[in-house]
Backbone:
């Protein structure tokens, strides 16, 4: 099965490993990630103002590209996924925005939010199935206590993201269990790490990140698992003394292909 | 209310899509806001101050740049008011004015370290500048 793939700026630079593990693991599961040609950066954050048009066009282009190939659009980075899904929702539900965006696009057929936008985790749960993921595990991660860190972007706003229960999510814990490890539940798993405010007010990001790390440690986690390069940066920069690992890296380890990805 | 304030109020309400009159003053948005301690005006105050037209203090407040856009207040509001969208609209009203960028590309080099992800830079510039 082929899906369109939007890697995003950070997966081509600071988070190359997040990308490499995602591609290799998808191959194992019989999915080909076809990178969108000439994709442009999503902008990192979705601007909720309805009169912001130009800043959302790179997402509309990627979404339309997937539509023309009749493929779902998959991303791994929490931020890209959030921007793509919120832009797609705006194209479906805000007639004025869609009309103005389409005026810029000049497509043969207007884009109106037809593409299915999936986070890689949704691809695993809803298309592949966690039971099939479990079948590919050759190196079960027995005895590891892992804290899933959702942060803010994967789950919210829930009316648009519709990924999981925003206050009591299970999707990453279900993956952790499929890989043979133990999932640790802790209070701060869906609170913000401080995000881009790390540039404006590093002390603010530090306080938020430490709350997350300490919450996971109090629940006796050995590892914190994330899908977001900025969450990983903020937690590590601000004193995380347990490893903060991408979920794709953990999969690659369980699938026994981690070394192949480090080429 | 002065005409220009009324126009600004209408513009903020229009581009945010938020109706501040739906607010029932329960304070849950501010109670759940992770940036509460860094803010001079808190999410519930943004809602009530936009409603009453007391917008000038918000435009000049550093609170605009402490919001994490984590959508905690959006998802946890029992009335669906969506305060973060209102804060975003006020922030845009501030940074869209000529020369009012809160952060520019020239500010970036001194903020860099070797690990910072590109995602942080593009996000901050999108939030803090026009």
Residues:
């Amino acid at each position: 099965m082929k899906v369109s793939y939007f890697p995003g700026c950070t997966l081509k630079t600071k988070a190359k490993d997040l990308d490499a593990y995602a591609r290799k693991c998808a191959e194992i599961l019989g999915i080909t990630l076809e990178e969108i040609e000439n994709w442009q950066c999503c902008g990192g954050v979705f601007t909720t103002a309805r009169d912001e048009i130009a800043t959302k066009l790179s997402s509309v282009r990627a979404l339309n590209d997937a539509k023309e190939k009749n493929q779902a659009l998959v991303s791994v980075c929490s931020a890209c996924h959030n921007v793509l899904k919120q832009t797609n929702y705006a194209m479906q539900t805000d007639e004025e925005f869609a009309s103005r965006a389409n005026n810029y696009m000049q497509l043969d057929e207007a884009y109106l939010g037809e593409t299915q936008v999936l986070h890689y985790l949704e691809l695993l749960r809803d298309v592949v199935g966690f039971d099939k993921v479990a079948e590919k595990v050759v190196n079960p991660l027995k005895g590891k206590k892992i804290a899933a860190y959702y942060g803010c972007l994967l789950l919210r706003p829930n009316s648009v993201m519709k990924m999981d229960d925003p206050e009591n999510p299970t999707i990453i814990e279900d993956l952790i269990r499929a890989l043979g490890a133990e999932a640790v539940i802790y209070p701060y798993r869906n609170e913000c790490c401080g995000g881009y405010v790390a540039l404006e007010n590093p002390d603010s990001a530090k306080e938020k990140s430490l709350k997350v790390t300490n919450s996971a440690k109090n629940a006796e986690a050995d590892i914190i698992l994330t899908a977001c390069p900025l969450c990983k940066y903020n937690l590590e920069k601000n004193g995380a003394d347990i490893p903060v690992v991408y979920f794709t890296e953990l999969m690659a380890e369980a699938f026994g292909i981690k070394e192949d990805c480090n080429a | 209310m002065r005409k220009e304030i009324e126009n600004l109020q209408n513009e903020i309400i229009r581009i945010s899509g938020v109706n501040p009159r739906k607010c029932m003053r329960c304070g849950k948005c501010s109670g759940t806001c992770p940036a509460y301690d860094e803010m001079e005006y808190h999410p519930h105050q943004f809602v009530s101050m936009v409603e009453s037209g007391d917008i000038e203090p918000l435009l000049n407040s550093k609170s605009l740049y402490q919001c994490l856009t984590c959508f905690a207040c959006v998802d946890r509001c029992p009335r669906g008011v969506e305060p973060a969208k209102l804060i975003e609209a006020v922030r845009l009203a501030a940074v869209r004015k000529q020369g009012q960028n809160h952060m520019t590309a020239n500010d970036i080099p001194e903020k860099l370290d070797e690990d910072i992800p590109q995602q942080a830079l593009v996000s901050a510039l999108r939030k803090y500048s026009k």
Q: What stands out?
A: Chain B touches chain A at residues 14-17, 34-35, 37-38, 65-66, 68-72, 74-75, 82, 84-85, 88-89, 92, 102-103, 108, 111, 113, 115-124, 126-128 (CB under 8 Å). The mean pLDDT of chain B is 97.
